Amino acid sequence: MEGIAFISCVRFSMQLMIAEGVFVSELPKRNRFILRLLGSLICYFLLARVVFTAFLRIPGNIPLVYTAYYTSLFLLTLGVIWCCFSARGKDVLFAGVCGYATQHIAFSLVTIFQELTDISFGVLMDFIMIRFLPYLIVSLLVYLVVIRKTEGERELKDRDIRMIAVSLVILLTTVFISVMVDSRYFAADSGLMRNVICKIYAVICCSLAIFVAFSISRQNRVVHENEMMETMLHNMKEQQRLSRENINIINIKCHDLKYRISRISRIEDSKDQAEYIDSIKDALAIYDNIYQTGNDVLDLVLTEKGLLCDEYGIKVTCMIDGSILGFMSASDLNALFGNLIDNAVESTMKEEEDRRFISIQVKKRGQGCYIHIDNTCSVPPSFKDGLPVTTKKDKAYHGFGVRSVKYIVDKYKGDLLMQAADGRFSVDILFYQ
């Protein structure tokens, strides 16, 4: 490469990182983020210097070499993202590709502006008005037009690596063409063709790359939502069965209670009568399952599930402050605790009757809300991606409850931990407020 200085490498890196910054804004940060960021930036520029020196030794102005040079710097920025953010490889690549496309859009617009206006600035103003500000403005526009529309829906996004690869190919092809038209091979052509027409083409292609990457993700989200609806409809049969079972439990107990009360007057022995009254009190224990936690929705869920636990001989202990759950919608609260308790009941039913225990806690922790549910579990389940894997054969419709729990926790930007140890299965959830 000829006629290129290391300062251009620094400027390109700065512009690229600005553009990538908007696409990593929702990614979860790793521990000690600031230290990681500083360390990875130092490593980046050291490696960038090595890359610059290596490519500088290649003679001539070969467009393919320049493309490889910029691609190498782009790959180094992916390392920075990976070091600083806790994300899957395809999410890192997605952010990098879209960020590079955004950077190239800004570069093309700046080139068009300079060609059409022929305005020149001093060194400082050139840096601000040409090298920095346009990239910041274009990145913010992309954030407002593209990213903000899907903000808060990250838990439903599933990046399609195939479409990311397509976007990357479009992007690199566009970069190669831009480098080609800026090389000595086309130096004799008009500036209008090289710096306006070709750069407009670059803007269109880079916009297409971002659109392809995002649109497929949105389509995947729609597919996911449809799958959720299908699964919910499938699970309604199970909910109806459980509701009928609860009604039958209440009807049986009420019928038994009516029969016992009618017999009290016919018992003459006072001792027998006292024992019989005690048995009626035991029958009235059904009303001990009516909860008052300070949250009406949670009261209904716990009451319904408590009836089932009582029938199956499952002992439930609760320490719950339902008033701190007011930030959640009724449907989300019902789904969260309904699925958690259903899973606990299903697991506990596999135990001997004297080992059937479920413990539920909801309390304030710092400025957040802490939820803990655990149950006896002699045989720990297998885990995948931090979630237990269903052991049922029909995996298409089972295991959905656990995924629903994760979906709701992610929706409210909480943390979820599921683990099995020492004969117990526990779920810990922390919501920050």
Can you give a write-up of this model?
With 433 residues, the chain is α+β, with helices and mostly antiparallel strands. The protein has 2 domains: 6-228, no CATH class; 291-433, Heat Shock Protein 90 (2-Layer Sandwich), CATH 3.30.565. The protein is 64% helix and 10% strand. The chain contains 11 helices and 7 strands. It has helices at residues 6-23, 33-56, 63-84, 89-117, 123-147, 161-182, 191-264, 270-283, 296-311, 330-348, 400-411; strands spanning 315-320, 357-365, 368-376, 383-384, 387-388, 415-421, 424-431. It has a 5-stranded mixed beta sheet with strand order 1-2-3-7-6. Helix 1 packs across helix 4 (89-117) and helix 4 runs antiparallel to helix 7.
The ordered string of helix (H) and strand (E) elements is HHHHHHHHHEHEEEEHEE
Strand order within the widest sheet? 1-2-3-7-6
**Continuous helix count:** 11
Average of the residue pLDDT scores: 81
Please outline the major beta sheet: 5 strands, mixed
Determine the structural class based on helices, strands and strand pairing: alpha+beta
- Number of separate domains: 2
Low-confidence stretches: 394-398
Overall number of strands: 7
Radius of gyration: 31 Å
In terms of DSSP E residues, the strand content is: 5-15%
Helix content: 55-70%
Straight-line N-to-C gap: 54 Å
In one word, what is the shape?
elongated
